[in-house]
Design goal:
427 residues; alpha+beta; Rossmann fold; Dna Ligase, domain 1; Glycinamide Ribonucleotide Synthetase, Chain A, domain 4; 26 strands; globular; binds adenosine monophosphate; binds glycine
């Protein structure tokens, strides 16, 4: 298997990490990334096509002998890119629009969990605001209210009083803050514990697990401030055991794959369960249908083997556990974000220190939103850079990643100084 051309779809640090790992594969000839960003030119040829412009992406794939399309960005799955690839006989790593509903509709996802007996918070679904409100009033507080559709991470409200319930229902279902994503809601019990994630490569039937990981969603240290797409990740999480991962596979991922198959929508790609763990009790918060960002950045640093082969085998229903290997090390990512993030972002700030940071052993910097002009890099969005490091211990990985971060600066740069600290306290 050589001389293959791959098209990666998306533009963030996640896609840079995928291109970087694909570039190590002996099976790969050319890597294209649509639309990508300037910072990933080291590993991919950029293609100026938006990730939801399905017709143009297919046209490009067909005329450039692309043997595998890899969907990074979930909006491309929702727009039907995988369906179009299948129709045109192009192998695709990523779910069809229908299978992606496991992420894109929380109502669908929770009903699937119930039907497949997957351990999750007790819930009800509503499309009538009054019934939703009355039910939420009757629940023990806090109670969790979730908009059905995608809402850029802002569609979940943890309500501690009837007033907060009223506000949430008003914003989501009546004022339609997230458009039609708020036509229905899930109302569910609040779960206690620590949030942890993992991923699984899936080929429609089989699943092969990744190590555990932990994201840090809030913008400020100590988990303060508004939620972001993710400000830093460590993997694996030292206290998460093989038993936890085994439970995630056997009681969540496998039953979901089986049910999706039975429904006629086999799932191909990465299933990413968000878990709530309280000692040995493990429950599913949500399914995502893609690699996490910045989870993908740590996972690609730990992956060993031929990524092209694994992704292609997923796409063609022939995934083999023995092809998926992980380094026996720890990895950490720290996100450097631009001024104003997550409310807004700032473009055009000159980034300095990248070359010095990249000199450090075991450091790789993935670009999330940068552009290049006259040999210099500038900020071009909210999350700008994903600085990653690996080490024999978690402390090593964290020390190295923060040493690298120390070299980099741009106007208004924001980052968390406590990535990986939470888990060490629990150890
Ligand atoms: P979701 O998009 O469903 O993962 O929800 C976003 C975030 O809300 C999660 O990462 C959790 O921090 C929180 N959350 C969601 N559901 C619950 C729940 N049932 N109990 C406690 N926290 C939750
Ligand atoms: N880092 C969280 C996500 O990708 O959903």
């Amino acid at each position: 298997m050589q001389n293959n051309n791959v098209l990666v779809v998306g533009s963030g640090g996640r896609e840079h990490a995928l291109c970087w790992q694909l570039a190590k594969s002996n099976s790969v000839n050319k890597i294209f990334c649509a639309p990508g960003n300037d910072g990933m030119k080291d590993s991919a040829e950029l293609v100026k096509i938006d990730f939801t412009d399905i017709n143009k992406l297919i046209e490009f794939a067909l005329s450039n002998d692309v043997t595998l399309v890899v969907i990074g960005q979930e909006a491309a799955s929702e727009a039907g890119l995988a369906d179009a690839c299948i129709k045109n006989n192009i192998a695709v790593f990523g779910p069809t629009k229908e299978a992606a509903k496991i992420e894109t509709s929380k109502v669908f996802s929770k009903q699937l969990m119930r039907q497949a007996n997957i351990p999750t918070a007790e819930f009800e679904t509503f499309n009538d605001p009054k019934l939703a409100r009355d039910f939420a009033y009757s629940c023990p507080k806090p109670v969790v209210i979730k908009a059905d559709g995608l809402a850029t991470g802002k569609g979940v409200v943890i309500a501690s009083s009837n007033q907060e319930i009223d506000d949430a229902i008003q914003n989501i279902m009546i004022d339609k803050e997230f458009g039609k994503s708020g036509n229905s809601v899930v109302i569910e019990d609040f779960l206690k514990g620590q949030e942890v994630s993992t991923h699984a490569f899936c080929d429609g039937n089989k699943s092969v697990m990744f190590p555990s990981s932990q994201d840090h969603k809030q913008i400020y240290d100590g988990d303060k401030g508004p939620n972001t797409g993710g400000m830093g990740v460590i993997a694996p999480v030292p206290w998460v055991t093989e038993n936890h991962l085994d439970a995630a596979n056997k009681t969540m991922i496998q039953p979901a794959l089986k049910l999706l198959n039975d429904l006629g929508s086999p799932f191909t790609g990465t299933l990413y369960p968000g878990l709530m763990i309280a000692r040995s009790d493990i429950k599913l918060l949500e399914f995502n249908s893609r690699f996490g960002d910045p989870e993908c950045e740590v996972y690609m640093r730990l992956f060993e083997g031929d990524l092209y082969k694994v992704l292609y085998d997923c796409a063609t229903g022939s995934l083999s556990e023995s092809d998926v290997k992980w380094k026996n090390e720890f990895a950490a990512t720290v996100i450097l974000a631009s001024a104003g993030y997550p409310k807004s972002s700032h473009k055009g700030d000159l980034i300095s220190g990248l070359a010095d940071a990249e000199q450090i052993d075991n450091v790789v910097i993935f670009h999330a939103a940068t552009y290049e002009k006259d040999g210099q890099y500038y900020t071009n969005g909210g999350r700008v850079l994903a600085v990653t490091a690996t080490g024999k211990t978690l402390d090593d990985a964290l020390n190295i990643v923060y040493k690298a971060v120390g070299y980099i600066s741009f106007e208004g740069m924001q980052y968390r100084t406590d990535i990986g600290k939470r888990v060490q306290q629990i150890g």
